[in-house]
Amino acid sequence: MKQEFCSFEHPIDDKWNTICNVTPMKHSAAKGCHMNGSNFHLNNADAVPARRQILISQMLQTQDFLTVEALASQFDVTTQTIRRDINALCEQGAARRRHGGIARIAVGGNVSFRDREVLNRSAKLMIAGEVARCIPNGASVALGIGTTPQLVAENLLGHSGLKIVTNNLPIALAAAQHTDFDVAIAGGTVRNSDLDIAGHAAEELFAAYRVDFAIFGVAGVDDDGSLLDFSRAEVRIRQAMLRHCRQSFLVLDSSKFGRPAHVRGGRLDEASVVFCEAGPPVVIAELLAGSDTRFVDCSAPLPADLKHD
User: Fold this and answer.
1) Strand arrangement of the beta sheet that strand 294-297 belongs to
2) Is this prediction's pTM over 0.85?
3) How does pLDDT run across 61-101, given as a tens digit for each residue?
4) Alpha helix ranges (H) inside the chain
5) What is the C-alpha separation between 256 and 119, in angstroms, rounded?
6) H or E segment to which residue 164 belongs
7) Which among 141, 184, 167 is positioned nearest to 237, based on CA atoms?
């Protein structure tokens, strides 16, 4: 088997050398890149998927995009093997699939809708499936912005007779293809990075209906139970949904607990039910213990009184 040199533009410490079976080497004329003045050799025979995926993740810290072909050559494996690695990394939310390869996910502040689609996707899918089981046929449902509400909407496509109210464009497009659904959508200017409509038009839309269920997400939850977002417009829309529904479902994966966002609006214990893929942090559990809000751990059996399937 030919030997390849794997490369990064940042240091790799002894811990990573141990995990990835990487041995620092002196400069060589063989294929490789500069790494703070030295190259390191990857033992390809030992590059099992987990190790290879760690290395790919590390490469994405300094490169925006990596092609399938370049990675296959780098690790001396087939393109099919690299595609399996890419699928695994995207499922973990560590990267975003792009045509011909894999791309780094932006960090800091809020991220684009396309990047959020792959973040914690398995957790969001678990949540979405359980929430959909709590919605009866014929219900009226308001769905807010974000990727978790979108996944809930996709899980609702097996229902019948739903009335959908939303400012989320992917949700509206998916629901409108269901001939048995009625869909109302906000007008106004589209936020390109979020694929939604915010502002006064969205607030007016939700205020015009009294729905059975409002389903919405949030950017973060502070330890005191405050709901956090990245804009006042997002907060006002969520509050409009809360005011004009019979039951409110807050859907969030566990990464949202303690996640910083600078605009505060509303509280966790204002929702009827909070759905998450795991149990709450201790401080949140204590806060909710004195409230009427139910917390549903979607990894456990769904409470019978919530099910409508």
Assistant:
1) 182-185, 163-166, 140-143, 211-216, 245-251, 273-276, 294-297
2) no
3) 778 789 999 999 999 999 999 999 888 887 766 677 888 88
4) 14-20, 49-59, 68-75, 79-91, 113-116, 121-132, 147-155, 169-176, 200-207, 232-243, 282-289
5) 11
6) strand 163-166
7) 167
For residues 297 and 284, give the distance between their C-alpha atoms in angstroms, rounded to a whole number: 13
Residues with Cβ within 8 Å of residue 99, at least 6 apart in sequence: none
- Please report, for residues 6, 38, 43, 264, 281, the alpha-carbon distance to residue 156 in angstroms, rounded to integers and kept in the order given: 45, 54, 48, 30, 29
pLDDT for the residue 23:
39
Q: Quick one: DSSP state of residue 92? A: T
Position 305 scores a pLDDT of: 96
Taking the C-alpha atoms of residue 97 and residue 100, their distance in angstroms, rounded to an integer, is 8
**Closest among 129, 126, 153, 130 to 142, alpha carbons compared:** 153
Rounded distance, CA 94 to CA 100, Å? 17
Quick: pLDDT tens for 3-54.
333 333 333 334 334 334 443 333 333 333 333 333 334 444 334 788 888 8
In DSSP terms, which residues pair with 267 in a beta bridge? Answer: 226
The identity of residue 42, as a single letter, is: L
Q: What is the DSSP-derived secondary structure letter of residue 96?
A: E
Retrieve residue 130's tokens: 């359980």
CA–CA distance, 117 with 213 (Å, rounded to integer): 23
254: which DSSP letter?
Answer: G
Six token digits for residue 123: 């957790």
